[in-house]
């Protein structure tokens, strides 16, 4: 078991390198060096040429490749910073909704106090939308359009789907669901089944292994995702099991669907044999294949056309407008909420800029052709000095220069499933944990926890609790004339003790 884990770790680290992508080119230039060495050493014909251009071209290419790698890393670093901005804005927006929007409200229509349960449901639902925003950005950057994903759909399934609640036609479908290909017939079936059922979907599936509507529900569920609720005894990493369980018009795609690495991914030049072995291989549709060009380079997915993140921010802005109409936000809280929503919109726009603005093709093509020509003529120029060492020298130079060039291309778009890309799934789960931690806060009255025996505010100068100090009416703290002076004296004593204790002699 341990050996298999160790082997898997080694294989994973190997896949994170660019050896898999550059070894055909390295092999080609090495064979050129072998040809030059054999012809020059075993025949009377010498293929050696002057090496005067070697230093000049090598220096220029080194600088250009260094610039190429630096610009790619800047995009990688900027992408990480923008995801940090999403985390910060999500956290701030959730805190404003959970803490600054009042719990005690009066329904203006009836004049009665609004039930606390309704307020809590309202707040938690909007915070779920904040969580859905980062997930939607992740799928959009990976070229995965729509909303039918196991980690996204449960968070936004309650959003309105038609411009008018009574007009459920194709012309009335809102852009969020229209871009996702919602099936109207299935939608009507699901709505009626959900609203008329007395049991929740989770309980119905848990109690009925083969329900009467098994054929319909098979189309509505992603079986792999729902299986976690049927087999709760199995301990495995399944973050989607913490999300709501709601019916869907389409089978939910997995939250993470990386391209499949096959034998032809490591040996791209053998892809010409693929049609010959295809009839003898069972094709699987669970994972998309790792697409490569004719030269074996990875083909990056394009940006998704659907604007799910923008649609989510529109609903957040609608909620903000509703709070303002009801007068539930102070000016400071309203400004902070607007800034947080604007920060989410600005961040997703900048992420789209990084995704959709690659390095110009002319620059990439010219740099690669220049490097190929340099490596092709390299053994001709160094044979006179290296002789048989020309072969390993050319192989090493090819590996070094092509590796740096490929690294720049690898990290230029850091939003996909490559091992060198940013771990967007980890970022989204971190946002989810933070938002749930915020909603776990009870927002108590400060008097309930400050003036207790557990609080020693003036330690180490005065190690009495706040409750003891309040009950000691004879202490100078309670003297109107000496109160401030006595407290400052205690705080000064605390500073001296802390300064002495925390310094190393």
TrEMBL record:
Xref: Pfam families: Bestrophin_2 (PF25539)
Keyword terms: Cell membrane, Ion transport, Membrane, Transmembrane, Transmembrane helix, Transport
UniProt subcellular location: Cell membrane
Superkingdom of source: Eukaryota
UniProt-listed InterPro entries: YneE/VCCN1/2-like
Membrane-spanning parts: 22-42, 48-67, 371-389
Membrane topology listed for this record: Multi-pass membrane protein
PANTHER family: UPF0187 PROTEIN YNEE (PTHR33281), VOLTAGE-DEPENDENT ANION CHANNEL-FORMING PROTEIN YNEE (PTHR33281:SF19)
Protein name per the record: Uncharacterized protein
Organism of this sequence: Somion occarium
Lineage: Eukaryota, Fungi, Dikarya, Basidiomycota, Agaricomycotina
């Amino acid at each position: 078991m341990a050996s298999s884990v160790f082997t898997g770790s080694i294989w994973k680290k190997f896949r994170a390198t660019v050896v898999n992508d550059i070894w055909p080119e390295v092999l080609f230039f090495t064979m050129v060096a072998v040809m030059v060495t054999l012809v020059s050493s075993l025949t009377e014909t010498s293929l050696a040429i002057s090496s005067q251009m070697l230093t000049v071209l090598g220096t220029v290419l080194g600088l250009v490749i260094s610039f190429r790698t630096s610009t790619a890393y800047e995009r990688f670093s900027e992408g990480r910073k923008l995801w940090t901005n999403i985390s910060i804005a999500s956290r701030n927006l959730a805190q404003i909704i959970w803490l600054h929007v009042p719990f005690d409200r009066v329904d203006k229509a009836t004049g009665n106090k609004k039930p606390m349960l309704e307020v809590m449901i309202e707040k938690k639902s909007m915070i779920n939308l904040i969580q859905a925003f980062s997930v939607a950005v992740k799928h959009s950057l990976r070229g995965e359009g729509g909303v039918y994903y196991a980690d996204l759909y449960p968070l936004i399934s309650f959003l309105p789907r038609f411009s008018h609640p009574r007009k459920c036609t194709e012309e009335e479908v809102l852009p969020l669901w229209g871009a996702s290909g919602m099936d109207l017939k299935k939608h009507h079936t699901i709505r009626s089944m959900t609203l008329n059922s007395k049991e929740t979907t989770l309980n119905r599936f848990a109690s009925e292994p083969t329900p009467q509507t098994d054929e319909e529900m098979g189309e509505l569920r992603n079986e792999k995702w729902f299986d976690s609720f049927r087999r709760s005894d199995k301990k495995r990493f399944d973050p989607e099991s913490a999300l709501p369980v709601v019916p869907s018009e389409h089978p939910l795609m997995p939250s993470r669907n990386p391209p499949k690495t096959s034998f032809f991914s490591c040996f791209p030049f053998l892809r010409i044999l693929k049609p010959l072995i295809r009839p003898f291989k069972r094709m699987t549709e669970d994972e998309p294949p790792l697409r490569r060009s004719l030269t074996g380079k990875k083909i990056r997915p394009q940006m998704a056309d659907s604007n799910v993140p923008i649609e989510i921010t529109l609903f957040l802005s609608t909620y903000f407008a509703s709070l303002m109409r009801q007068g539930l936000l102070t000016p400071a809280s309203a400004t902070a909420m607007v800034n947080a929503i604007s920060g989410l919109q600005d961040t997703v726009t900048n992420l789209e800029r990084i995704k959709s603005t690659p390095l110009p093709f002319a620059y990439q093509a010219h740099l690669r052709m220049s490097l190929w020509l340099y490596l092709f003529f390299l053994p001709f120029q160094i044979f006179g000095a290296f002789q048989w060492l020309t072969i390993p020298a050319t192989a090493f130079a090819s590996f070094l220069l092509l590796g740096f060039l490929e690294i720049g291309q690898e990290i230029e778009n850091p939003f996909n499933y490559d091992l060198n890309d940013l771990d967007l799934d980890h970022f989204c789960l971190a946002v989810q944990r933070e938002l749930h931690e915020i909603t776990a806060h009870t927002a108590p009255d400060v008097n309930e926890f400050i003036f207790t025996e557990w609080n020693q505010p003036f330690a180490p100068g005065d190690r009495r609790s706040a409750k003891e100090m309040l009950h000691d009416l004879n202490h100078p703290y309670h003297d109107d004339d000496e109160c401030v002076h006595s407290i400052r004296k205690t705080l000064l004593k605390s500073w001296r003790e802390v300064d002495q204790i925390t310094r190393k002699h």
